[in-house]
Amino acid sequence: MPEKKRAEIADTGLVEAVLFAAGNPMTVKEIAHIIELDVLGTQNIITRLQQELDERKSGLTLRQVAGGYQLATRPEAFATIERLSQVVDRKISAPTMETLSIIAFKQPITKAEIEHIRGVRIERALQKLLELELIAEVGRKPVLGRPILYGTTDTFLRCFGINTLADLPALPSTEEAAAALDGEQLELFQEVQHLQEAGELSADEEPADKRQEE
Length: 214
Description:
The protein is mainly alpha-helical. Helices cover 49% and strands 12% of the residues. Strands 3-5-4 form a three-stranded antiparallel β-sheet. The longest helix has 17 residues, at 39-55. Pfam families: SMC_ScpB.
């Protein structure tokens, strides 16, 4: 980058521009490479940028997501931004969200294992999650037939505002679940708890019942 052009932009403004243009989270090392500075200096600039955003009450903030930094809107602006959802509706149905939750907590997991937990066929839910890039194929289970294993993606981390899978909330106790869930939801929760205690399911098990696919 020509020094004259760079001198017209503060270092914090430069990092802000890079993150805005990138859209996706960037690691400190990646940002340092782009702005041609060392990692430590870049980290200091990122810290100053967050302070500047706070001081000027910007509608944007820096968020640590998926091992990197991303420009994101502040929670205080969510009510206004929600109006944009009227233009593009990409809501995930409750059954699809249940499937995503199982994958998030039990990954890597096969389709048959998910169907065993949910008690229904999940082809459409699985396809929707793949299309939205919230999940991906992460390997094959070393059993007969070598079924595909599914896991969550960096897109999942960004969408749910978490940095790593370790930041996923712990499953509630059975007593807490009983107080918050209806009968069918509680049954699903208890099945997940049972599987966590008992270990992996066999990949070739059939779904628990033959209810029509959702």
